[in-house]
Hints:
Order of helices and strands of chain A: HHHEHHHEHHEHH
Number of helices of chain B: 8
Strand content of chain A: under 5%
Structural class of chain B: mainly alpha
Helix content of chain A: 55-70%
Distance between the termini of chain A: 103 Å
Number of strands of chain A: 3
Radius of gyration of chain B: 18 Å
Distance between the termini of chain B: 47 Å
Number of helices of chain A: 10
Shape of chain B: globular
Helix content of chain B: 55-70%
Radius of gyration of chain A: 30 Å
Oligomer: heterodimer
Order of helices and strands of chain B: HHHHEHHHH
Largest sheet of chain B: none
Structural class of chain A: mainly alpha
Amino acid sequence: MSHLSEEQLVLHYYADGESYAAVETHLSECEICRQQFETLRLELDAIESPVPERGPEYGAEVWRRLEARLPERRVRARFSWLPVWAPAVAVATLVVMAFLAGNWYERSKAPKEFARGGGRVAERILVIAVGDHLDRSQMVLAEIANATPGSGPVDITEERQLAHDLLGENRLYRQTATRTGDAGVASVLDDLERVLVEIANSPDRVSSAEFQVIRNRIESQGLLFKVRVMGSRLRANPPPPAAPNKVL
Amino acid sequence: MQDSDAAVIAQALEGDRDAFRVLVERHSRAVFRLAFRITGNESDAEDVVQESFLRAWRQLHRYEARAGFGTWMYRIASNYALDLVRARRRRPSEEIVEGTLAFASNGPLPDRLAFSGELRRRLETVMATLTPQERLAFTLRHMEGQSIEEIGAVLGTAANATKNSIFRAVQKLRKGLGPAVGATQ
C-alpha cells in the first residue's frame, strides 16, 4: 500500500481533498501516515492569528473618515450637449491667458516692481493649476496601474473619459511650459500626453492584452513616478507670492 | 429587510453615497481583519481599509456581479496590503511590527509569551519568503477559513492552482519553522 503524499495530507487537513473518506480510511489503517498527519495537524493548529477587535460601530467610523474623500460620481444632465472636458479646458485657458497677460505686462508698460509682482501672481496660479492637473492625471494612471483585471475584457469607460477631460488642459499647459522654457515640466507633460491620448482613444472595453499594453506604457516610462514627483515639486516650491507694491 | 449587495451597488453606481455607505458598514470589519493579517499592524490595516473603499468607489463600474462584493473587496484590499508589505520591506529602517501571526500554546503564560514572541518573529520571517499569492492563499484559507472557490475568485486562479498555492505555503512554513512548532504543544 502506498503512503499518502504531503500534499494529500495538507488537503485533508483543510478538508479540500477530493476523497476525504478514502484518506480517513487510509489513516485509520496506516500508522506511518497517521503519525505524519498528526505532526502536520499539530504544526498547523499551532498557527493562530489574533486580530484586534473591531466593534459593530466600526463600519460607521470608517464611513465618517471616508466620506469626505469620495469624489463625486459623474452625473451628466444639464449642458450635456457640451463635451465633458469643456469646463476644464475653459478654466485652463483662462489660467494660461492670465499667465501670458502677466508676462506681457511685465515686459511692457508697468513700473518694474509692480510688474514683477503681477507676473509672479500669474506664475503662481499657473503652477498651482498644473500641480492640480498632475494630481488628477496621477489618479487615472494609478487606477490603471493598480487595477486587477481578470482574463476577460476590461471596462475603462471612466478612465477614458477622465483622460479625455485632461487631454485639452495638458496640451495648453505643455505648450505654455515649452514657451516659457520650463523643459522639465514640458517633458513630463509631453510623456503624459502620449499616454492620455492612448487611453482617451481606446474603446470603453479593452481586451486584457490591450489593457496590459497601456499599463506597460505607463510602467516602462516610469510615468506615474515622474508625474508624482513633478506634482510634489510644484506643490512644495510654488513661486513666492508677490511682495507688496512699492511703486504705483 | 436588508437589501442585497447587488441592489445597493446599483444605487451606488447612480452616485448614491448613502448606498455606498451601506456597503462600507457591511464589509469594513472583514476588510480590516484581512488587512491586519497581511500587514501585521493596525495603522497599516486602517490605511488599507480606507484606501480599498476609496478604490472600490472609483472602480465600482468595473465590479462584475459574478463574484460577491465581499470577494471583490478582498481582492482590492489584498492587492493594496501586499503593496504596503513590499514597500515596508524596502524600508528596513522602519519599525517592524509584530502581531500578524502567532503560535497557540498550552504552556504557562510567561513561557508562552516569551516563546510565542520568538516564534512570531520567526514566522514573520518565513511568511516573508512566500510569494504574494502563497501568502494570500494561506492567510485566506488558514486564518479566514475561506473556501477554495472563494480564494480562487480573489486570486483569479483555478481550483488546482489555488490548492497548489496553499500547499506550497504550508511546505515553506513547515520547512522554515522546523521542529520548533511541535514544541509549543
